[in-house]
Write a structure and sequence with these properties.
257 residues; 0% strand; globular; mainly alpha
Amino acid sequence: MVAENVPTMTITWGRFFSGFVVLLFLSLKKKNLFPKPQNYKWLALRSLTNFVAVGFFYLAIEHSTLVKANLLNMTYPIFIAIFAPFFLKEATGKYHWLAVLISFVGVLLVLDFEFTGLVQGDLYGLICGFIASISLMSLRKARQYDSSETIIFYVMLTGSIGLLPFVSFDFEISTSTALAFLLTSLGGVAGQFFLTFSYKYTTALTAAVTTMIRLVFSASWGLLFFAESISYGLFFGSLLIVFSIFLLRLETKKAQD
């Protein structure tokens, strides 16, 4: 809805800048303008990869459907499942590679892949999923050293500065556009708060599995408000991806027991 009137990168930048303003206000209340990180390496990796992933996500929405962009972005739990044993030393079990294989087949169905290559929007979505997996694994590490507020402060600051050269304000501002832009920005900020807070108390894979509920909301919004169609490939591919995440959830629960 917002993307019809506002350039994609401007929407993305608005999300980061809104978050930076909120965190700056909180920092000023604590009389600590720039929170001092305890671990610069993981914070920097989280900040850089997050704004790059978000940028690719909005590009995927612009060049594909809302449902498809979210589905391909949701491949990041699979990338986490592949790399977490090496990156985070998190244990895996017998369902690990089976889930990866099933999810891969699901992604092929979602893409309606015919061995002729990927369309532009699909490629953006997959790139987003891969980079997001690196970002979320680095978030898991960063939360071991720094608070949620410190991490989000620098994530939002990095995105605000990094995307500024791509921002354009050459669009007509109506009341509906301004309201949608504000809701998009504040929603992104709220999501970052909850996401960052959760990574203190769970593994990267468990947190990634939980966020798959976004698929349901995305499909509902796409059908109700954007008249997006659901193909057989998209439907059955979605089921396979969700089933693969369920397998990973079983594995995570078994490891915790």
